[in-house]
Amino acid sequence: MAKHKTHFEDCDVLVVGGGMAGTGAAFEARHWGRDLKIICVEKANIDRSGAVAQGLYAINCYMGMQWGENQPEDHVRYARNDLMGMVREDLGYDMARHVDSTVHMFDEWGLPMMKNEKTGRYLREGKWQIMIHGESYKPIVAEAAKKSADKIYNRIMITHLLMDESKENRVGGAVGFNMRTGDYYVFRAKTVIVAAGGASHIFKPRAVGEGMGRTWYAPWSNGSAYALPIAVGAKMTQMENRIVLCRFKDGYGPVGAYFLHLKTYTQNANGENYEKKWYDQTKELVGEYIDHHPTPTCLRNHAFIQETIAGRGPIHMVTKEAFQDPHLETVGWENFLGMTVGQAVVWASQNIDPKYTNPELTTSEPYVMGSHATCSGAWVSGPEDLSPPEYFWGYNRMLTVEGLFGAGDTVGGSAHKFSSGSFTEGRLAAKAAVKYIEDKKAENINVTDKQCENFKEVIYKPLENYTVGRNEITGGTVSPSYISPIQGLQRLQRIMDEYVGGIATNYMTNENMLNRALELLKWLEEDLEKIGAEDYHQLMRAWELKHRALTSQCVTEHTLFRKETRWPGYYYRGDHMKLDDENWHCLTVSRRDPKTGKFTLEKVPVYHIVDEKEKKKAS
Ligand SMILES: Cc1cc2nc3c(=O)[nH]c(=O)nc-3n(C[C@H](O)[C@H](O)[C@H](O)COP(=O)(O)OP(=O)(O)OC[C@H]3O[C@@H](n4cnc5c(N)ncnc54)[C@H](O)[C@@H]3O)c2cc1C
After folding, report:
1. DSSP label of 447
2. For residue 488, which of 73, 124, 227, 379 sits 20 to 30 Å off, Cα-Cα?
3. Cα-atom radius of gyration of the chain, to the nearest Å?
4. What number does the ligand 1 atom closest to the CA of 57 have?
5. How many whole angstroms separate alpha carbon 213 and alpha carbon 121?
C-alpha cells in the first residue's frame, strides 16, 4: 500500500463530479462563499466530461418568463403529467423559477444561441426547448467552474464518502484515487455536493460485443451519484422509475428535434399510425392518464413496444417528407453534428439517406437517472418557502445525511431538469451548502486517519487480488480466484436484464423474478470482494462496477416495493399490470442500513403543491 502516495486536501465545499450540476455548484459556491475553499473532483476532465461531453443541440429546459412564454407552474404541471403524477413539485418549481437566469448566463458566457432575428427571442424547438450551436457547451460551463473553484482535480474517481466520527449521520468528505498515477486522495470537507451523473450499463445494452459502449446514455456514468449516498445510509426515492428512450436505431441519435422542429412522425412496417390502435388497451392499464396532453413519454413507448411484440415492426420515423425541404434537411443533419455524430456514421454504414429512406427507431435498454423524463435519485430537502414538512429539513437539496447535498441526476423526484436545470440545481445546492457552513453546522468534524487508512486498503484490494490470483492462471483470462471487471459487469447486466425488466423480457418483471434478482445480486456482491484489477484503469472499472451493483440492488428493491405498473413503457410488473392510484399514488423512499446492508422502504405522500396553491388562492 505504501507505493500509493496519499494526498490530503481540506476544504469547505467539495463537489464530486464536474458535469452540468457540478460546474453549477462550483460557480455558485464561490458567489456566496467568497472566502471559502472550494474543490471540485472529476473522474474524467471537466472540459469534456459527463452527459454533455459531446455537446448538445438544444437546451431542453427554459421557461422564457421574460417574454411570458411559460411560468414555473406550467413546468410543474408538465413534469407531473409526464411522470404519471409522481414528482416532487417543490423541487421542480424551485428549479423552474431559477432556470432562466442560468440560461442567460450561458448566453453571456458566449454559448452560441439561435435567435429569432426579428424578435430577438431564443429560437424554440418545442415548448420548453431552445436551440443552440452547442458543441462548445461543456467547455464553456467548465471555464466558469475553473474560474470559481480553488482547485479542480481531474482524473480522480471518488469511491467512498467519509463520515464524521464525532456526530452521527454527518458527512466529513470523500476519498478516491487518481486513475493515471494511482495516488490516493483524501478530501476532508465541511460539505459535500454529489453531482456524479446517472447510471448506464446496469441493464444489458442492446449493443454488445463489438458495439459495446454504444448506448444512449453516457457509458461512463456509473451510478456513483447513487452508490455513494446509499452506502452511507442516505434515503433514496423513485429508484424504480428507470427510463427507456425511443431513439434512432443503433446510433441512438436524438429524435426530439425531428418530432418537434421537422414535424416528422412514426409508423409501423405497414405504414400505419400505430399509436392510436393501442388507445383502448392503454386506457385499460392506466385509465385517464392516456387522455393527458402531451401523452406521457412512457405511454408512447408502450405503444411502440406492444406494436413490435405484435409483430408489426420495425417502427420507422418518416423523414422522407420533411427532408425534401432543404432547410429542414440541413437542420436534421446539424442536429446530429451538434451532439451525436455517431448516428450519421451509422446511417452511412447502413446506406440510409433519410431523404430517401425512413430510418428505423428502437427503444433503448433502461437507464437510471434523475434529470431527464425520469426522476430516480436521492431524497432531498426542498426549499423552505415551498416544501411541506415531510419534504423539508433545513437546507435545500440536502440529503438525509447532514452536510451532504445533491444536484442534477443525483436528486430524485424532480424530472425534466435537463442540462440547464441540472446546472441550476447545482447552484441551489451550493447556495444551501454555504449557508450550512455559515450557520456553523459543520463545526468540529472528526475524520480520523484510521478511517482514511481503512478506505485506502479497501480501494486498492482489487490490485492485490489480481497480483496474487494471476499466478494461478494457466491459460486465457479466467482465474479461479478473482473475476475481472468486464466479467462482473456482464454478470450484473444479465441479472438486471433478465429479472428486473430489461430488453430480454420486453421490460417485464414480477415479484418472483425480482426476488431471484435480489438473491443473485447478493451473491454478486460477495464475489465482487474478489474482483481483480491489473492496472489503474481496471481499478476504476472495478469501482465503477461496485457502484453499479449497489445502485442495482436499490433499483430492484424499489421495483419490488411498488406493486403496480405506474409507467408502462418503462417497465411492467406482470403480477400487477395496472396503475393503482388508490394504493400507489405516492412516492417510494428507501434506506439501506450501512451496518447490515438491509433496505427498508416506505411510502411518502406526493403533494400536488402547484394546484393546491391555486385552489387556495381562488377560495
Ligand atoms: C444522450 C443524452 C442527451 C441529452 N440531450 C440533452 C439535450 O439535448 N438538452 C438538454 O438540455 N439536456 C440533455 N441531456 C440531459 C443533460 O445532459 C443532463 O441532464 C445533465 O448532464 C445532468 O447533469 P449531471 O451533472 O447530473 O450529470 P453529468 O453532466 O453527466 O455529470 C456527471 C459528472 O460526474 C463525473 N463522475 C461520475 N462519477 C464520478 C466519480 N465517482 N468521481 C468523480 N467524478 C465522477 C462524470 O465524469 C461527469 O463529469 C441529455 C442527456 C443524455 C444522456
Report:
1. -
2. 379
3. 23
4. 8
5. 38
